[in-house]
Amino acid sequence: MFTNDIVVKILVGIVFGLFLGLVTIFLSKKLTLNRTEDPVKAAPIDTPLFKVMSFVIGVGVSVAVVFTAGDTAMIIRNLALLIPIASIAVVDSLVRKIPNSLLLSMIVIQAIYLAYYSVSNHTTQLLIAAGFGFFIGFAACTLPGVLKIPVGAGDIKYSGVIGLCIFFAGYLQAMVLMGLIAVGCLIVLKATKKGGLKTMIPMGPLISAGTVITMCYPILESFIGKNFAF
Questions:
Q1: Fewest CB atoms within 10 Å of the CB: 142, 172, 198, 202?
Q2: Nearest one of 60, 51, 43, 44 to 24, comparing CA atoms
Q3: Angle formed by the axes of helices 72-95 and 100-121, nearest 10°
Q4: Could you tell me the CA-to-CA distances from 43 to 48, 90, 180 in Å, in that order?
Q5: In this predicted model, what pLDDT tens digit does every residue of 177-209 receive, in sequence order?
Q6: What is the rounded CA–CA span in Å between residue 55 and residue 57?
Q7: Are 160 and 170 in contact (CB under 8 A)?
Q8: Among 146, 143, 144, which Cα is nearest to 135's?
C-alpha cells in the first residue's frame, strides 16, 4: 500500500523529470548550435523520437534519484546535477564537445552542497573527499595522454568534475560502468556492421550514464568507505 511519502516522491520525480526533458531539449540544441557551423548536427534534437526519449529518460532517472538519495539535500543536489549531465551527454554525442558552462554549473552545484553539508555537520571531511575525488578524476584521464593515447580536453575536465561530485568510490564505479557500456556499444556496432574496435565513441554520454547509475546506486561505497563515496 502506497504511503503519502511514496506518492510525493513519485510526483516530485515525474514533475522534475518532465522539466529535465524540456530543459535538455532546449539547452542541448542551443549549446550544440553554438559549437558548430553545421545546423544539421543539431537536427536529431528536433525529431519526435529524441523528444519522447528525453521526457521518458528524464522521468525515469529523476524518480530513481528521488527514491535513492539519502536525504533532502542530496535529492536536490542530485536532481540539479542531472540537468548539466544530460545536456553534456547530448552535446558531446552530436559535436564531440563538452561545454565548459555545463561543467562550471556542476562545480557550483557541488560547492553549494559541500558548503551546506560542512556547516550543518561541522566537518570538513566531505571537502577533503571532494578534493581527492577531483584529483583522481583529473589524473586518471590525464595519464592516457602522457602515454600518447588521445583523450579530449573536455573528457579530462569532465572526469575531474565527476570525481569532485561523486568522490573517489563513486568515480571508480562510474568509470567501470562506462567501460562496460563502451564494450556493449562496440559489440552492437560490430554485430550491426556499423563499426568496430577502431570506431571513435564519444565518452561524454558513457560517463554521464555511469555517473547517474552510480549516483543512484553507489555500490562501491560499502567496500571503500563512506568518506570517499557519498
A1: 198
A2: 51
A3: 170
A4: 11, 12, 29
A5: 998 998 888 888 777 777 665 667 788 999 999
A6: 6
A7: no
A8: 143
By three-state DSSP, how is residue 164 classified? helix
- pLDDT tens per residue, range 131-172: 999 999 988 876 655 444 556 778 889 999 999 999 999 999
Say which residues have a Cβ less than 8 Å from residue 51's Cβ, sequence separation at least 6: 21, 25
H or E element in which residue 52 lies: helix 48-68
Q: Which residue has the cell 557500456?
A: 181
**N- to C-terminal Cα distance for the chain?**
30
**Grid coordinates representing 132?**
581527492
Report the alpha-carbon distance of residue 176 to residue 209 in Å, rounded: 11
Q: Which three cell numbers stand for residue 174?
A: 562510474
CA distances from 93 to 12, 32, 37, 147, 198 (A): 29, 10, 16, 25, 17
Contacts of 209 (CB under 8 A, 6+ apart): 89, 177, 178, 181
How far is residue 226's CA from residue 221's CA, in Å, rounded to a whole number?
6
In 3D, which of 61, 22, 7, 109 has the Cα closest to residue 215?
Answer: 61
